[in-house]
Specification:
- The termini are far apart.
- The protein is built from 7 helices and no strands.
- With about 230 residues, it is mainly α.
């Protein structure tokens, strides 16, 4: 069992490193939708898949951590939905597992939000973990809810809706990967304990404005016809 745990943890770390490298490469290197982008995107997707599977195994057989379980669900759902939307742009028909994945994500997010409220009630407002539960719980549930709303109006989306949905989901998965790296390696930053919470939220506070900037940039380019992209 000990050998199994070691192999599991090592493979989890290796996959985490691959997601970090391939995710940054997909975001900043090569043309979006080009061959290099698709290749590193595949590395990112399957690395994230193994992170999710290995996280579930670690939580089940090595040590249970409800908070990390929610983060694993959130990050993989972003990865999953980001790839699925590339299929939905053609069929415009969400499958049952698209609905199921979104609903499960909402339930997990609401559960984490509930844990945060419970900590506030039982331990007071001085527990930083409670704020993190509320923060990640809200965004996890919101992500699933936004996708459910998208399924209901898939035939009435804005032009290139799938592009923005794919970008937002995959960037969200990358932010989760960066967050995991910072938190797991927090000691190398010599961060005082009182500020260790910042490693959990810093990637989101930096990444979300960048996502908004890119989205506005591409909307302008699509509107002006300056960015050609394959519909295949």
């Amino acid at each position: 069992m000990e050998l199994f745990s070691q192999i599991l943890i090592i493979s989890h770390v290796v996959a985490g490193s691959l997601t970090l490298i391939s995710g940054l490469a997909a975001a900043f290197i090569g043309k979006k939708g080009g061959k290099l982008h698709r290749q590193v995107g595949q590395v990112f997707y399957w690395s994230m898949t193994w992170i999710f599977v290995s996280a579930l195994l670690i939580i089940s057989f090595v040590r249970f951590n409800f908070f990390l379980l929610i983060i694993a669900v959130f990050s993989y759902y972003m990865n999953f939905s980001g790839v699925r939307v590339l299929k939905l742009r053609h069929s415009l028909k969400p499958m049952w597992y698209d609905w199921a994945a979104a609903i499960i994500t909402i339930l997990f997010g609401l559960s984490l939000f509930g844990v945060g409220i419970n900590i506030f009630v039982t331990r007071g407002t001085g527990q930083m973990i409670a704020y993190l539960c509320l923060f990640f719980g809200f965004f996890t549930a919101q992500t699933g809810a936004l996708n459910l709303r998208g399924f209901l109006r898939v035939n009435r989306q804005e032009r290139m809706w799938w592009w923005f949905a794919h970008m937002n989901s995959m960037c969200g998965a990358l932010i989760s990967s960066i967050t995991a790296f910072l938190v797991q390696n927090g000691e190398i930053f010599n961060m005082p304990n009182n500020y260790s919470w910042s490693l959990w939220v810093l990637p989101a506070f930096v990444g979300i404005p960048l996502m908004s900037f890119w989205a506005n940039k591409y909307r302008k380019q699509f509107k002006l016809g300056k960015y050609a992209v394959s519909q295949n």
